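Final report, closing paragraph on structural work. Over the funding period we assembled a curated collection of sequence-structure pairs, and we close with a single example.
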Amino acid sequence: MRYDFYIELVKKICLFCVFFFPFTFLQDAAGEEKDSLAPFQVKFILAFGEKGEQSGQFLQPNGLVVDQNGNIYVADTGNNRIQKFDNKGRLQSLIGGFGWASEQFQQPMDICSGNSLDFYIADMENNRIERYDKDLNWISSLYSNQALPENLQFVFPISSSMSIHGELFIVDSEYKRILKFNSRFEPAAIFGDFDWGQGALEKPAQIFVSRNDQVFVSDQDKHCIKVFDYFGNYLYDLGQNILSTPTGICSGYKDIIIVSDSGLDQILFFEKTGRLLYQFGSEGDKYGAFNNPGDVAFQQNSLYVADTSNNRIQIFKVNVIDSK
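Its predicted structure, as stored:
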């Protein structure tokens, strides 16, 4: 009798917990269900692209950005071009080809936009940032000013991000640092180089400047995201002891930080405090799996992933669950 009494008591406690302290069950794209307190679900929507040189195909797409209308701009790195797609993955236009003219590239590594009108491409081997409008018409080129001191120049830019104030931040892969340009595209500050203490970068990959003026830089050798304030002061590391080879960074619902990790072949969601909320993905070529994911973007509850070595773009819907 006493045994039956405890069994019934345990059942009642479990029912109480289910009704008053519910967990959110998240179905990841690979079909594995896992529990989390994070108030969202991630669902695979579609993928487009395949390996090749024809229009709409990719060769190691490394960067992407999505405008306010859901148009997807992809840095098709191996094909030395930029391709624009609508939100269904249908090709709209493209520019590029190998070279150093105004509409040619040598390893375009990343693309960013601050207003969905102007787009900035980190044209690594040409040592420049190329500026285009939303229809991929060339506007201008930004080069290092050789008349300035060396610490205000950049070599082999691999990523850039535009702040809400119209200032451009560039990852200088040669000197392993960040250069900040003002709204007139004049170099205004540098940070993250070898004498930056805990904020020194070893192998920076991509940069993201949030709407609340924090600067996030993925450091692949330090296996974390280095976080700085708007003036380049080091704040903290995000994802330490969790991330392997972080690449792309963006922000999602309620300033959640989303990171693609090419070493883990996963996408990870963090709170700004660094707490891991959710992760999904595995190595492979099925939908929801990844092979060296290079970049992420978030727009209108949709998550976009440059699945670099699978030569495709994957799109997921992030459904927010009202926790109230």
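The two ends are 40 Å apart (CA to CA). Residues 9-37 have pLDDT under 50 and may be disordered. We thank the funder for supporting this effort.
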